[in-house]
Specification:
alpha/beta; seven-stranded mixed sheet; single chain; about 375 residues; three-stranded antiparallel sheet
Length: about 375
């Protein structure tokens, strides 16, 4: 049984060790092919990912951020447009909107799910609104039935930020397949993580896919025949080959994360000053994020650190309060309160029960003294 002196927020060693021979075989295959950008490994991964996600097209790019930027442009979002997104997410969401010339419009979150409050989304729609960017935060899907209805009623595009939700499902369908386009990150810490930066755009719209393929390669379908200003954002063959090794095990590993989440709920669910996330169907728990009320979040984090246990605050500053958006002078109370209360505990698919009990014991001790 695995034991750890220091408990990290994420331990990738078990999954790497379990597939070491296959991973090394993939590396060798790419090195021997002498084709390191694009090529058969990328095409194969795109096809396999599209099949898994239940979409018609998958376009590999070099990061999740570029997947958002290129996805927005492929959907026709640009200058003078507004895109509604969550105030409680990573900066890449509003950054991508700004980088295509549009304006991010921040909506507050639902305190229970930490995802977009869809009533606030309705209130945020203006004549300039072109799209909605829901974020499936920490692996919990947004209510895409209601969000899609809002988009349809108002003639809006939907680009899902699926950076934290690979393998998550809503209504039996994969996140990324529920809007006009989906954007995935394969940053190494993700549920399906690469060994460097990598990303993916998915869609059922052939025109969106064609535009994305051009945009990722300097704006042209053929080399030296550039049709638009694009990007150098190609998925490299090595990352694609390694992702192909890991993809078949994603459901098994997501199930492992759910088991860890269920144990945490049993260990911590009765503490009055702490709220644990729901283990709803389809949630893949990219992070296990608790909420600590009464101004005790930092005490819990410090207590864990003193016992050699890692934890993270995602996110200490909601997007609308970042310096780059200070001119907006927004007040979004649910997002602001969440930023002061959230704490992500260690989680990985094969986390030993005794390690998890060690984490929970420290949290309980701090909060029940």
């Amino acid at each position: 049984m695995q034991t750890l002196d220091r408990v990290p927020v994420l331990d990738l060693s078990p999954e790497i060790d379990a597939q070491w021979p296959e991973l090394m075989e993939a590396v060798e295959r790419v090195l021997k092919s002498r084709q390191f950008i694009g090529g058969p490994e990328v095409v194969a991964f795109e096809e396999e990912a599209a099949d898994y996600l239940g979409v018609s097209h998958a376009v590999g790019v070099n990061s999740g951020t570029d997947a958002l930027v290129i996805g927005l442009r492929a959907l026709g979002v640009g200058p003078e447009d507004e895109v509604i997104t969550s105030a409680f997410t990573f900066f890449a969401c509003p950054e991508s909107i700004g980088n295509v010339g549009a304006s991010p419009v921040f909506a507050d979150i639902d305190p229970g799910t930490l995802n977009l409050d869809l009533d606030r989304v309705r209130e945020a729609i203006t004549p300039r609104t072109r799209a909605i960017m829901p974020v499936h935060l920490f692996g919990r899907p947004v209510d895409m039935d209601e969000l899609s209805a809002i988009a349809t009623e108002n003639g809006l595009k939907v680009i899902e930020d699926c950076a934290q939700s690979f393998g998550a499902r809503f209504g039996g369908r994969q996140t990324g397949s529920l809007g006009d386009a989906g954007a995935f990150s394969f940053f190494p810490s993700k549920n399906l993580g690469a060994f460097g930066d990598a990303g993916l755009i998915v869609t059922d719209d052939a025109k969106v896919a064609e535009s994305a393929r051009k945009l990722r390669a300097h704006g042209g379908k053929h080399k030296y025949h550039n049709e638009m200003l694009g990007y150098n954002s190609r998925l490299d063959a090595l990352q694609a080959a390694l992702l192909r090794v890991k993809l078949p095990l994603i459901d098994e590993r997501n199930l492992g994360r759910r088991r860890v989440a269920e144990r945490y709920a049993e260990l911590l669910g009765d503490i009055e000053s702490l709220a644990v996330p729901e283990t709803i169907p389809g949630h893949v728990f990219h992070q296990y994020t608790i909420r600590v009320s009464g101004g005790q979040r930092d005490d819990v984090k410090q207590g864990l650190e003193e016992e050699g246990i890692g934890s993270m605050v995602y996110y200490p500053v909601p997007c609308h309060r970042l310096p780059v958006y200070s001119h907006l002078d927004l007040r979004l109370p649910s997002a602001e309160l969440a930023a002061s209360e959230v704490l992500s505990l260690p989680i990985w698919p094969t986390m030993p029960e005794e390690v998890q009990e060690r984490v929970a014991a420290v949290v309980r001790r701090v909060l029940t003294v």
